[in-house]
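Re: beginner question about structure tokens

> Can someone show what the tokenized structure looks like for a real chain? I only ever see the sequence side.

Sure, here's an example I had lying around. Input first:
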Amino acid sequence: MRHTNPMRLLVVVAFAVVGVAVSNGCGDDDGQAAPVDEANLVRGGQLYDTWWTVPGVLDPIAPTSTNPGYGLTAGTRTGSDTWRCKECHGWDYRGRDGAYGQGSSRFTGVMGLLHASQEDPAGELFDTVKDGRPATAMSSFSSHLSDRDIRDIVKFMKDGIIDETQYIDDASKTPKAADVARGQSRFSSVCAACHGSDGKQINFGTQAEREYVGTVAVDNPWEFLHKVRFGQPGTAMPSAIQSGWSVQDVVDVLGYAQTLPTE
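And the corresponding structure tokens:
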């Protein structure tokens, strides 16, 4: 769920650019190669969300400056938001071709990551995140993320990114096929313990602008899918992936969550 307080030109494939391939391996802090297979997929998804809130991250302090790479984009935001991976690539991982496309208040013009997930070698992705790309919207993250952190993000990019157009209709923001009754059962048995039966136990927003499970599900179903699949960084929220849920299981819960109160 979106947390206001924890919870980019543009020919950039920010995490996916041509580089020197390193076969299915990424550099380690000691200079040795380490396979992405050993990285933590779920942690990588949380780092993609808000990296400085993830336990064990190299730099746990939220940036106060605006990401210099972000200034090369069409984006208009400032401060820590501009350092979040999702801020350029979107919750649907489609960047300028998705929900953060032209007309969105979060449009940056940066390309999405589906290409990275499907085609780009892990070593290239690792080098791009670590070293950045001069004159593009991708800044170096070497002073913020350790090699372990970056490997986890690469693992997420290679194995965690899904094409959400298969599950969510962009125009209506509704699931293309959801078993609402099944989603209700899962929500009641797992999610309600913290969020309440109506999804209003936790306010993700502010007192003036309240945000609940139903609010996020209706307003930003792509974010909902990501948060449920990977969990909310810095909290005890469980990851559906770690719990053995399929993407369809999460879509079913989304279908039910869209019936919950939004105010």
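Each token stands for a local structural state, so reading them left to right follows the chain. Residues 1-24 have pLDDT under 50 and may be disordered.
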